[in-house]
Amino acid sequence: MFKKTAGWLLLSVLILSACSNQSTAGNSGANQTPATPAASEQNAGATTTPSTGKDADATASAGTTAGSTDAKSQESSSTTAEDSKAEAPVSYTYHMNKNYDIVPNKESDKTPKKVVLLTFDDGPKEAKMINSMIDTLDKHNARAIFFVNGSRVKRHPELLKLIHDRGGVIGNHTYDHIVLKNESPAKVKQQIEDTQKIIKETINVTPRFLRPPNGAGNDAVHEVAAKNNLMYMNWSVGSLDWVNQNDPQAVITNVMDQLHSGSTILMHELPWTVEALDQLLTKLEAKGYTFVDPDTIEPEMR
Ligand SMILES: [Zn+2]
């Protein structure tokens, strides 16, 4: 008799404890099977730590845990899936040579040599320009690197998110757009690493391309770049959009005059460049050029 009562008591306690655990977990209403306490804790852990994963491994494990359970976890797993997509290993089909031209890794008919890499510096400035540029890129099935300044990201984090959300690849263009070759090693480090940090904090992506302002570096710049796994990337075709202001046709002419296979084209987030872009990309395609996806460029220059 005593044993039976104790058994009922124990069962009641277990049921009560299961119920309270479920209500503590809170958002597991969609889950048909009551979660065990251990599982609830795991879920809670996965949902509170997902997108800040410091590295691919952390992100991947959070995603795996979250992916197996309830609605709240699914919500977080979609975030982690996007994050891990950004850092997922890809097969590199191109590299950059010492002239800052893009070259296929293998001689193959499948990998076009007649390509250009599109880059836009000095943003993010304005949603209207960014949307117009990316609308044009989308129309031509092109992606580009947007070399941003940390100070601009600080003022407009939502614009960095916009570029990233719309498929733009983000590069580091220093924090304050200062000419690094004139600066101390400590200042160089701060300018590059503060920019890496604010980009990572804003979109959870660590850039792997660095463009020093004016294309001007020194040993310290190369050293800090290498330590941060950043490829030092100048350009091989300057659109001169910073010289020929308010002149969309000049932007096009300047690029077409210097165009060659593998051109890395320097442009800026400027109204006349935005205006010229559709016509420029149409002309490039008419000459048989296609656009390199920046994610297919291997990390080491050679
Ligand atoms: Zn610049």
Automatic annotation (TrEMBL):
<dbReference type="InterPro" id="IPR002509">
    <property type="entry name" value="NODB_dom"/>
</dbReference>
<dbReference type="GO" id="GO:0016020">
    <property type="term" value="C:membrane"/>
</dbReference>
<dbReference type="GO" id="GO:0046872">
    <property type="term" value="F:metal ion binding"/>
</dbReference>
<dbReference type="GO" id="GO:0016810">
    <property type="term" value="F:hydrolase activity, acting on carbon-nitrogen (but not peptide) bonds"/>
</dbReference>
<dbReference type="GO" id="GO:0016798">
    <property type="term" value="F:hydrolase activity, acting on glycosyl bonds"/>
</dbReference>
<keyword id="KW-0858">Xylan degradation</keyword>
<dbReference type="Pfam" id="PF01522">
    <property type="entry name" value="Polysacc_deac_1"/>
</dbReference>
<dbReference type="GO" id="GO:0045493">
    <property type="term" value="P:xylan catabolic process"/>
</dbReference>
<keyword id="KW-0732">Signal</keyword>
<feature type="compositionally biased region" description="Polar residues">
    <location>
        <begin position="22"/>
        <end position="50"/>
    </location>
</feature>
<keyword id="KW-0479">Metal-binding</keyword>
<protein>
    <submittedName>
        <fullName>Xylanase deacetylase</fullName>
    </submittedName>
</protein>
<dbReference type="InterPro" id="IPR011330">
    <property type="entry name" value="Glyco_hydro/deAcase_b/a-brl"/>
</dbReference>
<feature type="domain" description="NodB homology">
    <location>
        <begin position="114"/>
        <end position="292"/>
    </location>
</feature>
<keyword id="KW-0624">Polysaccharide degradation</keyword>
<keyword id="KW-0119">Carbohydrate metabolism</keyword>
<dbReference type="InterPro" id="IPR050248">
    <property type="entry name" value="Polysacc_deacetylase_ArnD"/>
</dbReference>
<feature type="signal peptide">
    <location>
        <begin position="1"/>
        <end position="25"/>
    </location>
</feature>
<keyword id="KW-0326">Glycosidase</keyword>
<feature type="compositionally biased region" description="Low complexity">
    <location>
        <begin position="58"/>
        <end position="71"/>
    </location>
</feature>
<feature type="region of interest" description="Disordered">
    <location>
        <begin position="22"/>
        <end position="90"/>
    </location>
</feature>
<keyword id="KW-0378">Hydrolase</keyword>
